[in-house]
Every structure is written in C-alpha cells, then in structure tokens.
Amino acid sequence: MARLLMDDVTLIKGGDGLTAHVRFRGGATTTLTLTRALNAWQLRETSAEIVAEIDHLLDSHADRDIATILNARGYVSGTGQPFQPGIVKHIRHGHHLRSLYARLRARGLLTRDEMADRLKVSADTVKIGGRHGLLPRHRCNDKDECLYEPPGSDAPIKMQGRRLSDRRRPNLLPDQTSEVQYEA
C-alpha cells in the first residue's frame, strides 16, 4: 500500500536524529525529522535533581537513611522503583559522590581506635563513652559504626570506680587555681 502512495524516500542520518524526505506519486514532498531513540541505560538514568539531592543528604545521612528520606518525599529511581540503600550506593558510586564516612573523615572526625590512642584507653572504653554521651560521635554508615569528634580540653579522663557521668574534667576559671585550702 505504501508503494502505491510513495515514489521515493531518502533517509539522512544526522548527529541527533534521522531525517526522512518523502516524495509522493502526485509530486508532493514532505520532510520528517525523528529524534534518535535513547539507549536503555539513558531511559533508566536517575535525574540530575535526585543526584543533587543525594549529594546534599550525604553530608549528614547514610545510604539507608537517604533511601527512606527520598521515598518519603515521593521520589522514585530511574526504573520507577522505590529507593533502596543499594540503589543509593550505586548512584553514589556512579556519580563519584563521597560517602558520609569520607565526608566526616575530611571534617577531622576520628575512628574508635584513633580516639582510643588519643585518650590512652581501650577501644571498648571509647565505645561505652560514646554510648553514654561522654564522647560526641556521629553514625557514619548503615552498619551503625561511628566516628568521634576529636577530644578537646574537657575530654573525659580515666577514673575507674566513678560513674561515667562524673568523669568530666572540672571547669576552672582562668584566675582560679586548683589548690584547696585546709585549716586544721
């Protein structure tokens, strides 16, 4: 049927599509321009908006939390599925985004072993101190591992036999001395 209507069709492949020049039997001509079909991976690619949102969320959240936040906001992956931690990790690797762990390390936070070396205590003591709020810590991955803020001048000290909450250094004013007066 198409042979009865058309006399000649010329196809020209261009950089961004295909151009078809059609000449009909009656002498009329028309030109059709078709855009090139996307590859399968381009059809499933995550939008730049979502990648930027993931990059922003990585400053304070791990992959599991980011997936939960994106799902709560109604975003879906490039395949139309809800986000999972593995999808977030795949996007992070594909777009060369630094993980929460790498970002916290760049800010100077310490691992449990490094903190133990600085405080001259065991790694388990650091973990317990973090759990009780003596050492500020930040969860750095989906395994609930933590990085610790470097100890300042008010870092807890070894005081075996005392409650953990009592292990802070006393705060002295600059003009105060640590001497005690005793009268007999």
What does this structure look like?
The chain contains 8 helices and 5 strands; from the N terminus they run H-E-E-E-H-H-H-H-H-H-H-E-E. It is of the alpha+beta class. The protein has 3 domains: 36 residues; 54 residues, no CATH class; 53 residues, Orthogonal Bundle (Multidrug-efflux Transporter Regulator, Chain: A, Domain 2), CATH 1.10.1660. The strands form 2 sheets. Strands 1-2-3 form a 3-stranded antiparallel beta sheet. Strands 4-5 form a two-stranded antiparallel ribbon. Strand 2 and strand 3 form a beta hairpin. The model has no long low-confidence stretch (mean pLDDT 84).
Concise synopsis of the structure shown:
The chain is of the alpha+beta class.
Order of helices and strands: HEEEHHHHHHHEE
Euclidean distance between termini CA atoms: 121 Å
Main beta-sheet annotation: 3 strands, antiparallel
Total domain modules:
3
- Which regions have little confidence, pLDDT < 50, spanning 5+ residues? none
Radius of gyration (Å): 32 Å
Structural class, from secondary structure content?
Answer: alpha+beta
**Which shape, going by the Cα principal axes?**
rod-shaped
Count every beta strand, where a strand is a DSSP E run of 2 or more residues: 5
Helix content: 25-40%
Oligomer: single chain
Give the strand order, joined by hyphens, for the main sheet: 1-2-3
Residue share in β-strands? 15-25%
What is the arithmetic mean of pLDDT? Answer: 84
Quickly count the helices: 8
